[in-house]
Protein: Probable membrane transporter protein
Organism: Microbacterium hydrocarbonoxydans
Amino acid sequence: MIDLGVWAWIALGLAALVTGLSKAAVPGGATLAVVLFAAVLPARTSTAAMLLLFIVGDVFALIAYRRHAHWPTLLRLAPAVIAGLLAGFLFLALADDGIVRRAVGVILLLMIAITLWRRWRQNRADAPPPVHGGVVLSSTYGALGGFTTMVANAGGPVMAMYFLATRTQVQVFLGTSAWFFAIVNLVKVPFLAGLGLFTPQVLLMDLALTPLVVAGALVGLRIAKRIPQQLFERLVIVLTIVGAAYLLF
């Protein structure tokens, strides 16, 4: 087991709870879990540890929302996501922890700015929003989502910004996100294993934290259907800004 202090374990436990909650109810909330892990562990170690916990959360997300996915959106995103995953793997293999964290922070803040600007322009023009986004939009967010999820498990906020930009309803948002990350996270496993990041210490730590992920997911499933669309979107944006700012500074 990794030798950590009491407060470090408390932070990791909170992150595990948030991981389950975010998978079942508020996808953007995963940023908080990423930040807590990155604050306690080296960036690469935190990436490997978070990935396994995310996969546990993915199981609950699929159980609850698998029927709500919009598959044309997933297929549209796939080519750009694959390119982003490969770029992220190369970056993770070459860059140090500090560069990884700051790069992800910059990308997240940029995505928030673009999303808010697009929505402001749409509201001002009184034009109907795009239903599933165009090729440029899906390619940009898909590539950045693949890149950030590979290097820091921070693809959730990027994809959340994509779904917010396309005005996706909550249930479709959660269903499409559930399938997206269930597939992507499994694809990432051999890449991180090839870098030797799944050490026995990481596996034992995740085993100890898994019950908290399950508990968070069960709570999330109970509250997800009660969250209004507007509140849901604001929570995603605020949590993403907080997490991105921490990673950057």
